[in-house]
Amino acid sequence: MGNQGGKARAPATGRKPLVTGWKLDRGERGQLLERFIPRYADVVADHVTLSLGDASLPWDTHGEIVGEADDLEGVQALIVSIAGRTARPDGSTYHITWSLDRARGRRPVESNRVIAQLGWSPLDRPVPLTLLPARF
Fold first, then answer.
1. Is 50 exceeded by the pLDDT of residue 8?
2. What whole-number distance in Å separates Cα of residue 105 and Cα of residue 71?
C-alpha cells in the first residue's frame, strides 16, 4: 500500500485536530493484545501518530514494536520503529498508546510526556507490525 496522495483538510473550528499516521490492522491487533497484556482497564491500542493537522499520508506500511513505556500510574505505551527510526519528525517518539486508567483521569496524549520524561525499555526482540496509512 503506497501513499494515498493529497492533503487532508483542516477540521472545522472547535473540533478535535486531524491526525495523520497509521491505524493498526484489526486482525493483528488481537494477536498483539494477547502478546502485550494491557496493564490498565481502558485499552486504546488503535494507531501510531505521524503528525497533527494537514499532512500527506505516509508511505510506510510496516514497522516494529521495539519497546515499552509505563509510568505505573495509568499510562502504558508501546514504542514503534518505522523505517528504522523511533523519532517522529516533531522530535517525539513513535508509539501506540496501549492502555490507560481513565478513572485516574489519564488520557492518550499523556503517552508523549511519559516517554519523554521516563524513557522506555527495549524488547528482547522487535515484533513486526502492519501499519495502515490513515487520517482520523
1. no
2. 14
Give the per-residue pLDDT at 53: 83
Among residues 27, 31, 35, 39, the alpha carbon closest in space to that of 98 is found at 39
Q: Cα(first)–Cα(last) distance of the chain, in Å?
A: 18
Residues 6+ apart with CB under 8 A from 117: none
Task: Supply 78's cell numbers.
Answer: 508501546
Question: pTM for the full model?
Answer: 0.87
pLDDT band, residue 15 (cuts 50/70/90) = low
User: Residue 110: phi, psi to the nearest 5?
Assistant: -70, -15
Burial-class residue 80 by CB neighbours within 10 Å (0-12, 13-18, 19+).
Answer: buried
- Which residue matches cell numbers 500527506? 56
Sequence-distant (≥ 6) Cβ neighbours of residue 133 within 8 angstroms: 1, 3, 4, 21, 22, 57, 58, 59, 60, 61
